Amino acid sequence: MLVGGASRAANSETPPIEEKKGHPRPLIAVPRPEEWTEIAGLATKTEVLRYLAAQGRSSYEKIRTWRATYRLTYRGPVSPDLARPPRTPGPTRSAPSGIVCERELLVDFVIDQGRNAIYRDARPLNVAFRDAATGEPLDMPWLSVSAERTVVTPTEHLEFRFWPEVSLAGTQPQEKRKKTPSKLTAYRNPREMVPVWYGGSSDPRKLFGYSGFPIWEDLEMDIAVLSGEHGARMKSHWERNCRLCQAQRPEGTWFQRESVSRTGAGEVLIQRATFSPSQNHLPVEWVILRGARPGDFEKKVQHYMCWTYKQTAGVYVPSRVEEMNCVGLVGNGHEWKYELVSCQLNDLVEPGQFTWAGMDLPEGTVVMDRVDNVAYVWQGGKLNKLSSLAEGANGRGWTRWLRWVLAGLTLAALAAIGLVAWRRRPPRGETPGR
Fold it and tell me: How many of the other CB atoms lie within 10 Å of CB of 37?
């Protein structure tokens, strides 16, 4: 976590993020640089870090079950492979050099912390593809957006995708865009296929953390370093390259943790987290800045997150979160916005919620088990085993290739027979049988 070295003077030269044009802004106003004063004394710093870690951990650990809905908005570049139009008869179409996808989803989820299980139903509401340079909507009928229901537990990864009617920007009629599979298919995947950070960007548990860690784990690591658990060298490094500040406001005392490091190329990285008293001293802003030298941070925001919270049943739950992961200059990366729609905490959740029965599969859905290599069909509220994977694939997979191979062998045999007959024909002018 603390790598490299830079002088503490670099911290004081960092400009405030909210003053940079085009950069993201926090959802609530944070103190200005001149309002912050560094906290002195090792014991005081440790006490503040322990308090901030306890605020985050205690709030999160009060959640036993969590049933809620978030509105998730995503904006990011489209892969060049997907942006390239498929080959079709007629004039060749070319795609713009940069394409941006904008998606709005509604994510219903149920979490049981005791079982470490999550159910999600992510439904797209609006989708648009735009020219990154002009912002004009693009017609890309070869792309489609699926809805998905997933269950992730310590031993299972269940997935069901389908293609609903959604609003797509462009000129093609919606019915020409929709890709409807011949059969609705669900999958039981190997557990290692689950994305990092629980289950990807639609997993709300990730909103309680940053930098790939829950909030409190980052702070508890600081406490361990300052207590000498990782050696005198790490402790000395933290004291040289990290600082803990406070700012007094009418609503209470704000805290800010800032660290400085260097990349292998010698560039300066500054990581800053700000904690607000009005939000139970949970983080309201987290940012990573990158510059070639101290003070050179123009358009160099690498990663940015900001939060507001809503208190429900004594727990501070993220109510609005904005995140930006930049590639190069600001605006060329990925952006996520989360908005809490509804929330229920610590209600009874039946264990069946995290099984096929809890996924509300349509009757007749084929279930492909990629772990045990078995196929089922969902009928009568249960899985009924099919005779083979080929039957479950509905003519797809190896049976499709087998048909092509048999057809090819048949054509080859007919060609061979024709060739032999042609070679054995009598010479021209010669009467057969003589």
Answer: 10
